From TrEMBL:
Keyword field: Glycosyltransferase, Transferase
EC id: 2.4.-.-
Name of the protein in its database record: Putative glycosyltransferase EpsJ
Residues of the Glycosyltransferase 2-like domain: 9-142
GO MF annotation terms: glycosyltransferase activity
Gene that this sequence comes from: epsJ_3
Enzyme class: transferase
InterPro entries, per database record: Glyco_trans_2-like (IPR001173), Nucleotide-diphossugar_trans (IPR029044)
Amino acid sequence: MVISLTKISIIIPVYNTSEYLDECLESVLNQKFQDIEIICVNDGSTDNSLEILQKYPVKIINQTNQGLSASRNNALKEASGEYILFLDSDDYISENALEEIYEIMESKDLDLLIFKIIEFDAKTREKSKYSYFEMDLLKSHVNGNVFNYSDVKELLFRISVTAPGKLYRRDLIGDMKFNEGLIFEDNPFFIELFLKAKRVYFDDNYYYFRRVHNDSITQSNFEKFPDVIPIYNIINDIVIRSGEYDTVKHKLFNRQCRDIYLRFSQVPDEMKQDFFLKIQDDFKSKKERYESDGTWELANKRSRKIFSNALKFNYYRDFESSINEYDIKRKNKKFKRKNKKTDKKIPKSINRLKKLFKH
């Protein structure tokens, strides 16, 4: 068992981010709250990231390039803090962030603190809010109270899963690890932790600033996008082990179909057929279970369409066209419904005006 020597361990995986590394590290080192350790994992950088790290009072772990998950896992082995904060090396935290989030954790005796992330453009530095990190549904549901999974079961797959944007009690993580060799690794890590956490709090403040640029992993690792399939199989196993599968099976199905199709639609055309065949194989293996355990009846129409059409067609273009056509029809229906409501309101408004002029 690791003896806690510091309050917060800050884990920063580093790979070829020399251009942004100073800003990242200084945002931590300039905090008023100093009962911290900073663990930087140099993941085989080929630029001068290591030289920059050596200028600062941080613990450096050097490794051959193993990826983000392995970097975080290796840092967790060394972390002695009572709490864990994950920070990407091209991002930064706000002034006094550590003092404020530590005070919240302590005063509310939390296992997990979730806070908001704001994005900014790497070139212009213009800030923008992203609904995924705003978590308005969660905010309105918990209404400033401490909660756990049992209070927000219907929102399990509507909460930001990113490893940053949270402060974790070290004991909550325990021996858990990020799945190595896969991207989208934050998903199962968060789901498993959230199902375990007894005291969680959502803080409606921006403590984390996320840089958006063309070198983002999700924009450059298209060949890894099919990882979304095994990632959801891992999540499925986690939910089954937790005993909550029957409660959230349809929501898991909806999220799985949504995310798998999203990643499929984002890869270049030359990669789509192979991706499509992997989707088919995965869906075929689950079809019987979904039809027999009630998932299919509870799932939404779009998810069922994605699932059934993946099994219906042999070529990715036919599959993709069918979903695009479905989405267009759905948008048109929504537009027509909205227009009907507007048309109904117009006569009422005219009648009100007539009455006003009469008087």
